[in-house]
Amino acid sequence: xxxxxxxxxxxxxxxxxxxxxxxxxxxxxxxxxxxxxxxxxxxxxxxxxxxxxxxxxxxxxxxxxxxxxxxxxxxxxxxxxxxxxxxxxxxxxxxxxxxxxxxxxxxxxxxxxxxxxxxxxxxxxxxxxxxxxxxxxxxxxxxxxxxxxxxxxxxxxxxxxxxxxxxxxxxxxxxxxxxxxxxxxxxxxxxxxxxxxxxxxxxxxx
Length: 206
Description:
By secondary structure, the protein is of the alpha/beta class. The protein has one domain: DHBP synthase (Alpha-Beta Complex), CATH 3.90.870.10.
């Protein structure tokens, strides 16, 4: 049975954020709102929690997770970023983007794309997520919350609670979210390439 936390989207209650962070550190799986959709995440080093998320999402071992980071300094620990890429990232973070970047040696191999050695990295523009990452002191592994039978992510925290309460340890109710996932930008080539158009408007940052 999960714990349900109603957290203010603009002024997160630190006590509740600390409780969610402790659940994640202990191996729990958490559902939380972002600046795009609701997501499901866990501790960066927890393979068992990662496998549980795969089971919840009904995806195989090749499904890519995203590292959700607090800021660019944290991002640089897990991805190789040259000067031109850094300028683009600085202009577009925090925001509703997932950037595909060459993975650094700090990234566990199970998180990398098996052939390309890349990692998806995201810095959300969400006060709740920023507070949670600050409390954790490190990134989370994360994927969009969407069930096998649905075409779109759930937006209503009450519906999420009814559906997911038996499967996770923590649910953060931060209000309604949208149904548009992040815009995915591949930064591994000579020029950025949008591989999925989502909520983020990348044209404003290049």
